[in-house]
């Protein structure tokens, strides 16, 4: 009899380790302020809710590739907001959130044993899990120059995350172009996770005179060719639709055609009402500006309070997080914050280079952010 256990033998989900700190923080007399997870808390804009409801009569199966209207909206959005002209509607596809694509892309690309997936040194853990699901090897590096010759020869996929989670690092045009050129030399795909692209601050804040965060599909980066390039984007953050699982991928024509076919076989389909809600959301910029203004105010308030608490903020030029350190063990900082009723994300969840850091999300209501600011500033 075969007694091998059923199921994938994966490590425990890391966020479970926060449970005791959540319990401590919940005892605060003014209540818990949970800034550990970047889940939107503000209302989904009315026009998106209305679009979802209007498309609710959907008795037939939706298309995996997405409706022509949605794909046209994605193409127009790339040209308008990401400086990516000339995309074909054939070369875009909706996905069930961007996490689906991060987790399954290595497998869908046909990677396996012996192949290397490169991910940033401080990174969202799902990049590693994608390699695990495919049976490939994950290697942490911010540049292919960091790899030895033997490893470099096996690189098939390079993830770049700009703006980065959790660090908020933005890779400029020159840095992205150099990465693309290096990956093309070894025949690897570059997949760019750009879900925080609308949330630049300081020099990357367009409304305050900054420049737009560049996309890997920007002609200044790719030289006008999308060969071996994919851009992954999510509406979760910019449009408060994390619960819709509304995202898309675009890029290399041959790869995209293969991805569409594979996902047809696997049944990975974005529901029709969500597709229509995405189409409407992509055409409207006002709700994105309003939401960003909320995050800008919350960020400005938290920066001063965290510094008053003794934390130093590193990078954090964009995105929904402040990447901080007190120059001590990560869990010591997490524990001190929990005593104030505040929960942050442990930097240790994001790789070896995250030790000593914490990630503070901007995704709290105005009232909860104000409560955190008061507690932090009082210490």
Task: Give your account of this protein's structure.
The chain has 379 residues and is of the alpha/beta class. 39% of the residues lie in helices and 15% in strands. It has 14 helices and 12 strands. The strands form 2 sheets. Strands 2-8-7-6-5-3-4 form a 7-stranded mixed sheet, with helices on both faces. α1 (19-26) packs parallel to α13 (330-339) and α12 packs parallel to α14.
Q: Write the H/E string, N to C.
A: HEHHEHEHEHEHEHEHEHHHEEHEEH
Evaluate the radius of gyration. Answer: 21 Å
As residue ranges, the low-confidence spans are none
Strand content: 15-25%
Strand order, sheet with most strands: 2-8-7-6-5-3-4
How many helices does DSSP assign? 14
Shape: globular
Query: Percent of residues in helical segments?
Result: 25-40%
Overall mean pLDDT stands at: 95
Q: Biggest β-sheet: count, sense, barrel?
A: 7 strands, mixed
Any key phrases for this structure?
379 residues, alpha/beta, 5-stranded mixed beta sheet, 14 helices, 12 strands, globular
List the helices and strands and how they pair.
Layout: H1 19-26, E1 33-35, H2 46-54, H3 68-81, E2 92-96, H4 97-108, E3 116-119, H5 126-134, E4 137-140, H6 149-152, E5 155-161, H7 173-185, E6 189-193, H8 219-222, E7 229-234, H9 236-239, E8 246-251, H10 253-266, H11 272-283, H12 286-308, E9 312-314, E10 321-325, H13 330-339, E11 342-346, E12 357-361, H14 366-377
């Amino acid at each position: 009899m075969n007694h091998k256990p059923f199921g994938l033998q994966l490590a425990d989900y890391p966020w479970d380790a926060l449970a005791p700190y959540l319990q401590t923080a919940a005892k605060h007399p003014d209540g818990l302020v949970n800034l550990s997870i970047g889940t939107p808390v503000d209302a989904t804009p009315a026009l998106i809710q209305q679009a979802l409801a209007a498309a609710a009569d959907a008795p037939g199966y939706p298309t995996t590739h997405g409706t022509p209207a949605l794909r046209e909206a994605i193409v127009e959005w790339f040209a308008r907001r990401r400086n990516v002209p000339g995309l074909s509607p054939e070369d875009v596809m909706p996905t069930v959130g961007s996490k689906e694509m991060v987790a399954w892309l290595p497998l869908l690309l046909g990677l396996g044993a012996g192949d290397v997936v490169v991910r940033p040194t401080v990174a969202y853990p799902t990049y590693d899990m994608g390699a695990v699901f495919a049976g490939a090897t994950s290697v942490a590096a911010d540049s292919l120059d960091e790899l030895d010759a033997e490893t470099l020869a096996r690189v098939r996929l390079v993830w770049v995350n700009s703006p980065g989670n959790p660090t908020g690092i933005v890779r400029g045009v020159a840095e992205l172009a150099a990465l693309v050129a290096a990956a093309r030399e070894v025949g690897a795909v570059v997949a760019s996770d750009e879900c925080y692209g609308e949330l630049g601050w300081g020099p990357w804040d367009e409304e305050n005179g900054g420049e737009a965060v560049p996309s890997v599909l920007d002609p200044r980066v790719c030289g006008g060719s999308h060969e071996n390039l994919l851009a992954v984007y999510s509406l979760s953050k910019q449009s408060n639709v994390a619960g819709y699982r509304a995202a898309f991928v675009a890029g290399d024509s041959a790869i995209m055609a293969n991805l569409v076919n594979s996902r047809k076989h696997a049944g990975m389909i974005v529901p029709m009402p969500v597709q229509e809600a995405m189409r409407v959301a992509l055409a409207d910029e006002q709700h994105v500006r309003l939401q960003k203004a909320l995050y800008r105010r919350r960020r400005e308030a938290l920066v001063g309070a965290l510094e008053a608490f003794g934390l130093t903020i590193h990078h954090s030029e964009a995105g929904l997080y402040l990447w901080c350190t007190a120059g001590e063990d990560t869990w010591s900082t997490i524990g001190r914050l929990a005593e104030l009723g505040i929960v942050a994300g442990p930097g240790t969840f994001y790789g070896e280079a995250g030790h000593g850091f914490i990630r503070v999300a901007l995704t709290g209501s105005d009232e909860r952010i104000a409560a955190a600011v008061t507690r932090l500033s009082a210490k």
